[in-house]
């Protein structure tokens, strides 16, 4: 009796188990295609702990070694396919009809649901056209003198001080972002916007629990206040009836057809996209230049020769757009920093239908992660990938192996502005100042962009 009940239970389990495996294998062989190789870890938690308990890049590198350039995993409650081959990354980023952008709901709420990153199709294309128009070379060339004065003000305020490079670079990139959005009015709103924005960002990486007292709650309140400030700015502009060619002017144009909420979400979104990214890259540049005296020397000489030739030709002192086009060595330092630091280690997409890629099935609803950092650090794409060597960019990298600004329909529309502001700051930094790093400088922190430990404390002094 005892034995036969046990046997009965055992058979039930066995049948359920077999049936389940059958469904699983049927599911994963839709269209007769296998899933990519890889392990999924525990139910629900998957491999989240393995990913976050170590340097995420070690996790990715071990997977690639074991399973190849396309593998499956399970993180943060989502099954996903991770991709580290240049061609596959390009495929995912360019096939907008197969892969849509995807973010955690809490992040969408904080930045604003109407922000450009979260959309596709007609609405996205319209926004993108407006943003690209403001940030294309012909539009930003006129910003050089204003960017220059922001850079000079920042450097002056750091003079002789012990500073946290990342925090100070954030002030610089924030002010440049406001300039590109609000034009000359920028300075009027700086302090209010800055105060709200700093509260907002502290909540961005916190647990999304919306009860009084939490960082998230404070951030949501700051988000509301930001919208109110922006509403005032919009109202003021409407009474002025001028046609401004900054981003706000472009968003407010009749042809843009955007509501006030859409404008606010996108302004906050652009500040978010523009500030910490560019500030992290600048922080890495300061570190790499500090560690590579011969590279610093070459950059300094290039920048000094620009000053000298302007003097000899009797030109005015300030930098021009043309000057920034005569900085090949400095530009390669920026490229190599973008590669080595790869501040955006990866991005997220979601398959909107079952997709076949190279004989594998990427099931509908799965997340897909192009791993930028692993592409940039593969010895197949870059010789001695861990070495900081700007001269490698004297030869163009192989197609699709270098995508610090992404690729395809959501590629960074601010990349020209980012490069311009970095060149302008580096011009003044290297010609007028010297700096030394304080403390041991080896760790990387992610917040969420890769950053030198502690934001790189340095002491900055004027030359001579
Ligand atoms: C060095 C600094 C920067 C880096 C490394 C960077 C990188 C990126 C990357 C990789 C993407 C694509 C993400 C994806 O496909 O999922 C992106 C998108 C974007 N970036 Fe940047 N970015 C930088 C600076 C800026 C600046 C200065 C601005 C604005 C002026 C900006 C505005 C944007 C916007 C609006 C998007 C979203 C585009 C869309 O969804 O269509 N970025 N950025
Ligand atoms: C995408 O990658 C291709 C090949 O590397 C490149 O030619 C193209 O300019 C890139 N597009 C964008 C928007 O970055």
Structural class call reads: alpha+beta
When the domains are counted, the total is 1
The name of the CATH architecture is: Orthogonal Bundle
In round numbers, the mean pLDDT is 89
Give the beta-strand count: 12
Categorize the overall geometry.
globular
Distance between the termini: 96 Å
Number of helices: 18
Give the distinct bound molecules.
protoporphyrin IX containing FE, 2-acetamido-2-deoxy-beta-D-glucopyranose
Rg (C-alpha, Å): 25 Å
CATH superfamily grouping: Cytochrome P450
| Helix/strand order | HHHEEHEHHHHEHHHHHHHHEEEEHHEEEE
Subcellular location: Membrane
Pathway: Plant hormone degradation; abscisic acid degradation
EC number: 1.14.14.137
Catalytic activity: 2-cis-(+)-abscisate + reduced [NADPH--hemoprotein reductase] + O2 = (+)-8'-hydroxyabscisate + oxidized [NADPH--hemoprotein reductase] + H2O + H(+)
Description:
The chain is an alpha+beta fold. It has a single domain (41-462), classed as Cytochrome p450 (Orthogonal Bundle), CATH 1.10.630.10. Helix content is 55%, strand content 10%. A hairpin with a 3-residue loop joins β10 (444-446) and β11. α10 (186-204) runs antiparallel to α11 (215-240). The radius of gyration is 25 Å and the shape is globular. Mean pLDDT is 89; it is low at 12-19. Residues 116-117, 128, 131, 135, 180, 270, 273-274, 277-278, 281, 343-344, 347, 404-406, 410-414, 417-418 line the site of protoporphyrin IX containing FE.
Question: Could you name the key traits of this structure?
Answer:
464 residues; alpha+beta; Cytochrome p450; 5-stranded mixed beta sheet; 3-stranded antiparallel beta sheet; 18 helices; 55% helix; binds protoporphyrin IX containing FE; binds 2-acetamido-2-deoxy-beta-D-glucopyranose; transmembrane; iron ion binding
